[in-house]
Structure formats: structure tokens, C-alpha cells
Amino acid sequence: MVSPPARYLVFFQYFGTKYSGVMETLNDQSMVGVQNYLEKAAQKLKPVVPIKFYISSRTDSGVHALCNSAHLDIHRAPGRPAFNEKQLINGLNYHLRPEPIRILNAYRVASSFHARFSALSRTYIYRLLVGCAHHSEIPVFERNLCWAPVGGYLNVPAMREAAQFLVGTHDFSTFRSLNSETPFQSPVRTMLQADIQPSHGFLSHHYEHRGLEFWELTFRSRSFLYRQVRRMVGTLVAVGQGKLTPRHIKELLETRDSRALPPNAMAPPSGLFLKSVEYNEADLNSPVAPGE
Hints:
25% strand; single chain; nine-stranded mixed beta sheet; alpha+beta; 9 strands
């Protein structure tokens, strides 16, 4: 008789450049997903039933995560106790060692908990580098971790003004890319935060004389449409470059047509990070009933 499964929520981070995205893919492809490696590591914990990770937030190829999350069920052999959180973290990280993927934390949760549907909100940041006249001027330690738009200058106050049009509940059809899920998804989302703040590069205080500036664009919502953040960032950069006015953001929202976005107005994946997935603390700290 197989003992009842234990459900866990795990938080994990990854450097996304070498992966096809976070979701699993066929193992015979040249690039596979982060999920492939998570499940391969989990199988080495010798569960009775193969372990599947239910990822909370999809990210594309080249996109990074400071903190993504997933839930999983672990069936252990009869007589074997459920892993405690520390054992699970250490066991998974041991088997993930060759990969730039790390388990940050784990919680034992109720069997009704779902990493995707129980999430209250998700926060993304996008890193911009300003001051590079050519891509060869990007510091080597920032490669694949930011976007340096052509031109070397951005009107940040205009971008901040434009970003405020994104806050609130809107139809974001203009800011989504079309995929197979488009006909089944409402384009209405509520943007809780959209702001732009100065930031720092890796060891950038050692090359301040170069005059490079790092900026972070932060977006928070319960959920996002396919490539929505990258399209919003690309459009805000177009405002910063003077190609659009802040008012154009409001007009694009009202157009509600993905074809209305200016050509090449989608930021590359390299500067995008899933910063966090937020949950109700009570869900993470609630006692688990016996047998769950």
C-alpha cells in the first residue's frame, strides 16, 4: 500500500539563458526547460510515484527567475516518513548541482493548495542599461542580464509618466503576443504596480567613470498575458527614445489590438526577471492534517 502523498510548495531560482523556458519540453531537444531538470533531480529522491512539478509562472527562453515557485506531491515507500522542508531543499539542490538552478525554500502545504491558482500576485523586474553607444560596451558581467537599447539615452521622466497609464484594470490586448491560449484567455488584467527606479550593475561602482546607468522597471499583477511585460517595456523604451509620447500608451491600451504595437517594440528576454510570487502567509504556515 502506497502511503498518502505529501504536498510541498518550493521556491526556486535560475539563470535562464541556457534553457528553453521554465516549462518542460521533450528531452531530445537541444534546449530543454528548467522543469526537466527539477523533475530529474526529484526522481533521485526515490519516490514511489514519479514526481511532477506544477509551475506557478511561465517564463520564456532567456528569461531569468530570482524566485519562481511550484508545488509537487511526493509519495514515499510504506514506512518512510515525509521529508521535512530542509531535507527536501538539500536533496533537490544536491542533485541540481551541475545546473544554474537552486531551490530557495520549501513549505509543506495542504493537498488543496495550488502553486499557480493560490498565488496572490507576481512581480517582474526588467533591467535596462543606459549609456552604451554600441552593444560591445555592455560590461561582460552583465551579458544576458540586461538590455542596452540603441542610442545610449532614455527620457526616464517621460517613461515614468507613460507607465502610470498601465496601472489599474485594463484590456491589455495590445500588449500581448498571440499564442494557442489567446482565444481562451481574458485580456483584462489589473496592474498593481508599474514603476521605474535607478539600480546598480554587478560591481558597477568600480567603473562609474564610464557613465553607465542601470534602471529597473517593476510590474506587479495577479497574472500576466503572454509576453506582456516585454511588450510593455519595449513600448516604454520607445517613449524614452522619443519615438512615442506618454499619451500614446493610453491610446495603445484603448486600441485593444496586438497588431497596433509599433514594430520591434518588444524588449529582448535577457533583461527580464521573475522577482517573486506572492502567497497568503496563512497558506504557507497552516498545519497539515494527518494523512495529507
